[in-house]
Structure formats: C-alpha cells, structure tokens
Design brief:
By secondary structure, the chain is an alpha+beta fold. The chain has 12 helices and 18 strands. Helix 2 runs parallel beside helix 7. The mean pLDDT is 92.
Length: 515
C-alpha cells in the first residue's frame, strides 16, 4: 500500500526546490549590473525513488518517484575565457601606458607648433642674421641676447618637464606596487574564506566572483599566471610568487624593476611605466642634451674669409696664429667647437683678444638641456657679443662696422654639425634636420603605440563579450525562468491542495455510513 502522506512530501520538496530557483533568479536579476558577477543556476535533480512496499518484494511496476531536490547552486564560468581575457589584458595595460606617455612627450615637445623648440631655434638664427646686417646697432645685439636666453630657457623648460614626467612614472610604479599588494592580500584572504565555506559542502559562488574580479584587475597591472589548487589560487609573475594559497608576497618598486631586468615582468601597466621611463623619456632627454651641447660645442666646419684677423695666439687645426700670421691672406676652412668656438674667434666692442664663450652651463659641468644658459657676462652686457673679425691701427682696435663674425654665426643654421650620440657613434647633420628626425621618430613611436593600444582594446572587448555571453545575466532569460519556476511552484502548491483534499475526504468522510 502506498504512503498516504507521500504526495504531500513530494509537493513540499517541489515547493522548496522551486522557491530556491526563484530566489536564485532574483539574485541574478539584482546583480545584472554588478561588475564581475557570474550568473548562478540551481541544479535540480530527481529525489531518490523508493520501491513500492510489499510483503516479499514489490509487485508494482517501476519505482515510486519522490519528487525533486536541488543538489547545488553553481555559477556559470568558463576558465578558458578567463585565462584568455587576462592574457590580452596584460598587453593592453602595457601599451596603454606607453601610449599615454608618448602623448605626454608629444605635448611637452609640442612640435610642430609656433611655441616649440624648433620655432625658438629659428628665431635665434634669424636674430643673428638680422644682427649681421647692422653690427653696430645695439638693439640688434640685445635681440640676439634675448633670443639666446629664450633658446636656453626653452631647452631648460622641456628638460624639466620631461624630468618631472620621469619622476611621475617612478612615483606611479610605487603606487602600482601598493595596489598589487592590496589585491594579493585580498586574494589570499578570499582563498582562505572560500576554502572554509566549500569545506562545509557549499559553493562559494559570490566569493569566487570577487576573487576573479580582483585577479582580472591584477592582470592589467602585471603579467600573471593563475593556478588553482586545493588551497585556492596561486598567482605567479614569471618566476615570482605573488600569492600562494593563504599567503601573499609584498612587492615594491625595487622588486618590480628587478623583475623587469630578470625577465619575470613582461607586460602590464608597470611594464609599460618602466619602459616609458627608461626608454622613451630617457631617450628624448638624451636627444635634447645632445642638441644643446652640439649647438654650443659640437664640431662644425666653417670658412673664414681672407682678410680676417684672428685673436692673438689662436690655435685652430693644430696651427697657432700670432703676429702678422693672424691676418688671413686666403680663405681658411677649419673645424671649430660649435657656436662657442666660432664666437671666441670674433671681436666685440670691448675686447681685441677675442669674445667670451657664448653658452655655458649653470653648474659648471658639460652643457645639457637642463643646465644650458647664456654666458652671465653677456646677459649683463650685450656689447660682449662678437660681430667683427677685423682689427686695425696701433694700438689695435676693433673695426666695429665689420660683420664677418656675425655673418658666420648666422650661417651655422645651415651648417652640418657632428652630433656625438655616445658609444663612439656620431652623425653629421644640421640642427634643424637633426631635430626633425627626433620629432619624426617620436611621431612613429606614438602612432605605433596608438595602433597597438587600439588593437589590444578591441581584443580585450571581444574576449570580454564572449565571457559575458557565457557568464553575464540576461534579463530576458531570467524573466523567462522566473515565469517557468513560478508556474512550477504554483503547480506544486496546487498538487499539495489536491492531496490535502484527498486526505480530508479519507479522514473526515470515510467510515461514517450507518452512524
């Protein structure tokens, strides 16, 4: 004989199971816009059936079903897509930082523009050209002085801003190190909590979502490999362990720089910051230093016209000029040390023994973009600027109307300097062409960074879209499930009412005949 109350038990199980399904559906809907959330499903299974009771064995065909139960609540997640997302995300992190840095360098150098270094250099040479037309005009000397000070200030300013950018990148590397430590500490703590919860037989779905979201964020900062073990996630950056079960390893900027050198750090935002600082910013600082020093002291070939008078005891090309030999009888083609060397061959209004050095450094060391300045004496007295290469009379006096020195100095604009690139490497070019090549290189690098960043962004979005198609919450689907589970719940409730009516008939209506 079948159990009289078995139907009530089956209906009860159905009510509980579909109530759980409805609750889970509501949880999905509530978290439809929660970042990192994976939709959850209730795994419904048929309850264990029983044989129909009998004296010896069941005489009824089949077994008696006992309704439905929910075995577990699981999240929908595909590990392969997670790994693919993190792999693309690390490359995006690196290229996006490089793109941002190069854009900042472009803004600092600001070429082509009406206010950039190139314009300042053009105005400097133009000032010399205008001055050579009227060397006795004191206003022309002052304009040369002001344009030279503006040129030095321009180099100083660009160098300072690039140095500040380098310092900002260094500071941000430590900020990212702190962010890594915060994430790895949280992951280690979640590993412990997830192990505790799942040790009791439950699925820690929401905790796993939180952990995966943290790992996604970490994958953009540095390259990582994630291995799931019994104690949770083990996270490696190359050969460096960041998380091992319930423990994590603190990192700082020094460790990250060492990881780059050892090959453990190969991608991510920190990788992009280190490359940007040590390659891009450092490279363009060096280019500016080379330009500044070359303008002042770089080897350049000039032709001094016949009739020019060199300062006494001047040594050029290994030859010392003194006495009557100071007056050139023919054109002299020689190599001088940049604008400084040529300026010292000329005469100003106050000296017959040659003019002072034109550009100097603020700290007394080699001239760089950061320390370049116009000679302080010339800043205080524009009459010290050389314009003449002629003297006459006894005692000797400067021919003030002569413009040979000023003309030669203005022609340096189109002269080819020898640029010392370091490491024994040199190149010959005009200042304008050299600077143009630097700007061209910057443009190519910036375009490449933009292209790579755009491509990586598309790849990350594509993988994330695929991941969302699997793990994301579809409100239409959830509404459909809600209706389905609601109908099942109502049907179970109706079945329970039916069983209740049957029992009421048996209990209260049977056996009353003849009373």
């Amino acid at each position: 004989m079948r159990s009289t109350f078995g139907g009530l038990e089956i209906s009860k199980r159905s009510l509980f199971a579909h109530q759980a399904a409805l609750t889970t559906t509501g949880h999905n809907v509530a978290n439809a816009n929660t970042k990192g959330y994976s939709r959850q499903i209730v795994n419904l299974v048929a309850s264990r059936p029983i044989e129909a009771p009998g004296y010896m064995r069941s005489s009824a065909p089949g077994q008696l079903g006992q309704g439905v139960e929910y075995k577990s609540i699981s999240r929908i997640r595909e590990q392969f897509l997670d790994d693919q997302f993190r792999n693309e995300n690390k490359a995006l992190g690196s290229w996006s930082i490089r793109q941002d840095t190069l854009e900042k360098i472009e803004a600092i150098i600001n070429e082509p523009s009406e206010t950039g270094i190139r314009t300042v250099i053009d105005k400097f040479w133009k000032a010399w050209s205008d001055f050579s037309k009227d060397p006795e005009n004191i206003d022309g000397r002052k304009i040369v002085r002001e344009s030279a000070m503006t040129l030095a200030d321009g180099f100083n300013d660009v160098s300072r801003r690039l140095t500040d950018l380098s310092a900002d990148l260094t500071e941000n590397i430590q900020v990212k190190a702190n962010q890594i430590n915060t994430i790895t500490q949280a992951v280690a703590k979640l590993n412990s909590e997830i192990q505790r919860v799942e040790g009791l037989g439950d699925n820690a779905n929401d905790l796993r979502d939180q952990r995966d979201l943290l790992v996604d964020d970490l994958s953009k900062i540095v390259n990582i490999d994630v291995i799931e073990t019994e104690t949770g996630y083990d996270i490696l950056m190359g050969g460096i362990s960041l998380v091992a079960g319930h423990t994590f390893t603190d990192v700082d900027s020094g460790i990250l720089e060492s990881a780059l050198a050892s090959g453990d750090l190969t991608a991510g935002e920190v990788h992009g910051m280190l490359l940007s600082r040590d390659q891009f910013v450092t490279s363009y600082l060096k280019e500016l230093d080379i330009m500044a020093n070359t303008i002042a002291n770089g080897k350049v070939t000039i032709t001094i016209p016949a009739g020019s008078v060199l300062p006494d005891n001047t040594t050029i090309g290994g030859v010392t000029y003194t006495g009557a030999a100071r007056t050139l009888t023919s054109d002299l083609t020689v190599e001088v040390d940049g604008l400084n060397g040529l300026h010292q061959l000329g005469y100003n209004f106050e000296n017959t023994d040659g003019a002072p050095v034109f550009f100097t450094s603020k700290d007394g060391g080699p001239i760089t973009a950061a320390n370049m300045q116009l000679n302080v004496d010339i800043q205080n007295n524009a009459n010290l600027i050389a314009s003449s290469l002629r003297t006459s009379g006894t005692p000797e006096s400067v021919v003030r109307g002569n413009n040979t020195a000023a003309l030669l100095l203005s022609q340096l604009r189109d002269s080819k300097y020898t640029f010392d690139l370091g490491g024994g490497t040199t190149t010959s070019n005009t200042v304008d062409d050299y600077f143009r090549s630097v700007i061209g290189q910057l443009g190519i690098q910036a375009n490449e960074a933009n292209r790579q960043t755009t491509n990586q962004q598309m790849l990350v979005e594509q993988v994330d879209a695929r991941r969302l198609s699997v793990s994301g919450v579809s409100l239409d689907e959830e509404m459909t499930n809600m209706i389905k589970f609601q109908h099942a719940y109502n049907a179970a409730a109706r079945a329970m009412t039916t069983f209740d009516e049957m029992l009421d008939k048996v209990i209260n209506s049977m056996g009353v005949v003849g009373r």
